[in-house]
TrEMBL record:
Leader sequence segment: 1-28
Gene3D superfamilies, per the entry: 3.10.450.50, phospholipid-binding protein
UniProt cross-references to Pfam families, sorted A to Z: MlaC
Organism: Undibacterium pigrum
UniProt keyword annotations, A-Z: Signal
TM ranges: none
Name of this protein: Phospholipid transport system substrate-binding protein
Amino acid sequence: MKRTLTKFFNFVFASLLITGMASGAAQAQEAPDALIKRLSQEILDTAKNDKDIQAGNQKKVYDMVESKILPFIDFPRMTSLAAGKSWKEATPEQQKQLTNEFRTLLVFTYSGAISQIKDQRVEFKPMRAEASDTEVEVRTQVIQSRGEPIVLNYRLEKLATGWKIFDINVLGAWLVETYKGSFSAEISKSGIDGLIKTLAEKNKKLAASSAAKNAAK
């Protein structure tokens, strides 16, 4: 089950990459469901037609993630939710370090999934929200040529710069909750600094593994 969810979260993060290809002004003007709909289609088209991405060029994927997606994800909020009550107990510097390491972990973990996109398409369900809402959930499902549809929902918040994603749900499992348990266990064992150290070490291993794969191509 864990491997299955990881695979689904891989597709989720890949589907977010195209978010940054819209300008900040366009994002601010669009309704959240219209934004996700347009961006989802663009990422599918891009991933299917880019030979380097299909070939698994991780450096190109990482560069795209860094320049395109990160400005449109509210990583501080995502990290604070995953850290739970311990977030308020952390110093500003610890919060900054934890956010950076968590962001790096997500980039390393899910960027490789972009090359796995083949024949998927996304269907959207009607959004239930008021015009005055500052937080909404956009509900979708991913249709594949084989297998059951994958339920895929997004939580977005409206900021001064426009709508930003702060959580993702796949088959009933929210990304933040998936990490919250492991974060809590590590914090209980060795504190915030211990969690930061654990994430940093994991990121170093992922970076080394990625470099080795690129060198072998």
